[in-house]
Amino acid sequence: MRSMWAPSGVEPVGPCVSTEIPGPVSKRLRAEMDPIHQTTSVKFFVDYERSFGNYLVDADGNTFLDVFMQISSLIFGYNHPDLIKVLSDPRFISAAVSRPALGSFPRNDFAPTISRALSAIAPKGCPLVQTMLCGTSANENAIKTAFIWYQTQKRGGPPSAEDLVSCMKQEPPGTPNICVISFDGAFHGRSLAALSMTHSKPVHKVDIPAFHWPVASFPRYKYPLEKNVQYNGEQDNDCLAKVEELIERQKKAKCEVAALIVEPIQSEGGDHHGSPAFFQGLRDITKKHGIVFIVDEVQTGGGGTGSFWAHESWNLSSPPDIVCFSKKLMIGGYFYAEHLRVKEPYRIYNTWMGEPTKLILLEKAIEVIKRDNLLEQVRKVGKGLQSGLRQIEISNQFHSRTSEDMLVAAFNKKCILRLVVISLLRGDGSLVSKIIFGFLRPECNEIFQSANNSKMRNVRGLGSYCAFDLCDTATRDKFLDTAVSNGLHMGGCGDTAVRFRPALIFTENHLEVALDIISKSMKRL
Amino acid sequence: MRSMWAPSGVEPVGPCVSTEIPGPVSKRLRAEMDPIHQTTSVKFFVDYERSFGNYLVDADGNTFLDVFMQISSLIFGYNHPDLIKVLSDPRFISAAVSRPALGSFPRNDFAPTISRALSAIAPKGCPLVQTMLCGTSANENAIKTAFIWYQTQKRGGPPSAEDLVSCMKQEPPGTPNICVISFDGAFHGRSLAALSMTHSKPVHKVDIPAFHWPVASFPRYKYPLEKNVQYNGEQDNDCLAKVEELIERQKKAKCEVAALIVEPIQSEGGDHHGSPAFFQGLRDITKKHGIVFIVDEVQTGGGGTGSFWAHESWNLSSPPDIVCFSKKLMIGGYFYAEHLRVKEPYRIYNTWMGEPTKLILLEKAIEVIKRDNLLEQVRKVGKGLQSGLRQIEISNQFHSRTSEDMLVAAFNKKCILRLVVISLLRGDGSLVSKIIFGFLRPECNEIFQSANNSKMRNVRGLGSYCAFDLCDTATRDKFLDTAVSNGLHMGGCGDTAVRFRPALIFTENHLEVALDIISKSMKRL
């Protein structure tokens, strides 16, 4: 038996980039890959053995601080020593080479493993869990569960003989004409049904046939929230009214709504947030109409928002019916309420139904999160990240305005003196302006917020899942390229947004590095 | 660093069952699991650490010879030592704890790993490969690839601005009204789109909305094939004519056929085989109409049919456009022809796009298959399995008929003497009758084949993927229960079929054990 490889165990002291990105090695590897596999979306190749903690090392040896973490899917960054230890657990070994068809032949330790890995973090009101392989299969099976429940309720029991015969011809009543409401800007995966609920970007959807299911509007808030209370409240109300309207319209069209699916943060679509009031409204409407309320926490679940589930921050009067997960939680799946339990065998089923190796790793991850107080750390670093980004935003707005504009506006608001001081300090930038902005009166901030010609805007976040917008797609893309060439690897989303999806081990030290690079990169735009 | 667990390395000498199935431990574990996870389809719990080779050990310590192998998904059975060694490979370790989003940030060893694990077994004409996570995601992305190609051909280029705008409203031309032909009895997975191409059992489909795509007929042959050449040929022709008819009908209905998807053996649907002539006909029709020909080898790929791909036995005049795989090949994915390469980034994409740990295990598996000549072994043991099953079939038919019937029929066919001898030997059964049947004239066999009251019929197979039918569902289910209580774990499929899906390490010694238990179990029906 060979001894196990162990990574260095020490994070790099900071980023270090010495080639263009992608570098020559990445380019060569891409050329080698091209004859056997598509490469069009490859950014660069990664040396996963040398990457560690929050730092990614690419094939050219460049070292980046990674706050995107494989599209938000690495809970502890790279090569976490506690996870590596799990690989020598006999349970992991046998699961890795003797993978069960666990719907029929589960491992004898399946229940306690689920219990420690998943039930331990079950969202309130959803004691049952079903593991799957990825976010898309989680969502597919969540809506299937909803359809089965909806039809069972309607009939008052299991499928009739007529249902069983007609479904084989794909005719009603066995194949029902029912639907799911999803939202403009949503992303729920890329299978055909998931794409029918996805409305983020044309590149996801074009040329693919779709179910013609209704699409509701998701709020688009103005920031900062506290300055736009009325506008944002109207957004919520308008969007909720549209949902009610769609439910009625679908009833008339004889294609009733069985479920509604929504993300806490529309991530792929551009990091759009909804308010607790909006989500409470959705919960109320779905309850009123007997519609299954599905919260897609594939991206937001797992701790990055400062709690295991983003929807915990909504303080709902009654919990969601289904909560989907994947990414940071390593496997896919969904938690669901007892009333949705499917009574007949083989209806929610497939060969693998998940992956025990991931479950065994996740069990350890949950233990480490608790042991190391990582949620507390995420909340703390998240606050720092949001306030740091707001300071850069304000600084950037200030830098973007002409001196004349600023002075006139500031004179009107009677904060001219401070502005003059800042103007004098413009040259050296962020640190000094950060301190000074801390003292600025809110009225003065407001001037900057209203600036139209600033490049960075709409800083927002929940825990460490923060984002901001840039003025257009080209500027956003240029910013991401500049940041990565400065050693910070971030993610884009929607048309103009930049998002943070750091691992749970992202600390205030990493935050400092990140903010400095962002500040520097903004100035180069 | 802890030392790694190693299993015994020795297969049990034979099956050993000492409790009812499921046993008391399985029942207790099921009760523990029920409050947190559905358990309706659980057969029994498995001790995967104690299982080894072709033998599965359940939670109660019962030992079964396993010819179902986790729904045909374990290539080397349980805890293969060569696969266990892979787990200490640094590539495996880093991949297991630092999972890449490999569409954008692949491992620096991705190309050589794919090359050794997959390109090494690429079907002729399909040099490109795309890894996914399971069979369903393979099929979903295969049809997406087909849709993208079909629309690109039709337009003569990438999507237009109109396409990109209209697809966001799910309206044509961006969201096209095009379809896939699938077959009656097919199984292609359980996502909504895959279910729309699945027509095996009502329990898969009922209550789930579907795409209204056309369904063709798959041949239903009479066995033995050599005695039913004309009937089976007509089956092929009728089914092919129906496909042509559907293509024309869809054109008129303004919902053109972009792809046709078919399994070499309709496994879930009841182990229905198609002839090389039938598949050649499908290839010709799809070529003629510019339709993408997708062969779903999720169950048949990986060596169990005696070659890496079941479609190799068809001797097609031109290869399939796409070949999907999963199960024994550990991950999901599809091979495809160069002309189907999608030129734009992010169209065939998702977070994980496969799983490098599986690819690293698969690399070793391909090496072992070649080193140990396992395909040769499968072909050899497959022949033995088919002939052994035919002998049991004939013996069973004989036992099922009344003496009078048999004697009269045999008299007419002038083989009365041999029949008398066999009649005398009826009591002790299989071994003696096997020897004697070896000498029987084909005319005499024919009598037995035509018997209506025999329970076992239609023995068929390709490599070790064999099957037979029993007279009805209740008898089939009783047979499976009897076999498992005798120590043989087999799979059911369709309404009345029993299928073999042994691992590639299934040898003639295991075959002897299996046939004896089948023979014994048949007699108890």
Automatic annotation (TrEMBL), chains A, B:
Example GO molecular function:
4-aminobutyrate:2-oxoglutarate transaminase activity
Per its UniProt entry, which superkingdom is the organism in? Eukaryota
A cellular component term from Gene Ontology for this protein is: mitochondrion
As its record notes, the protein acts as a catalyst of: 4-aminobutanoate + 2-oxoglutarate = succinate semialdehyde + L-glutamate
GO biological process terms, alphabetically, are: gamma-aminobutyric acid catabolic process
The record's section on InterPro entries has: Aminotrans_3 (IPR005814), PyrdxlP-dep_Trfase (IPR015424), PyrdxlP-dep_Trfase_major (IPR015421), PyrdxlP-dep_Trfase_small (IPR015422)
CDD domains with a match to the protein in the record: OAT_like
Give cofactor(s), names only.
pyridoxal 5'-phosphate
Q: Which UniProt keywords apply?
A: Aminotransferase, Pyridoxal phosphate, Transferase
- Pfam families to which the protein is assigned, alphabetical: Aminotran_3
Family affiliation: Belongs to the class-III pyridoxal-phosphate-dependent aminotransferase family.
Question: Per its record, how is this protein called by name?
Answer: Gamma-amino-N-butyrate transaminase
Which organism does this sequence originate in? Ascaris lumbricoides
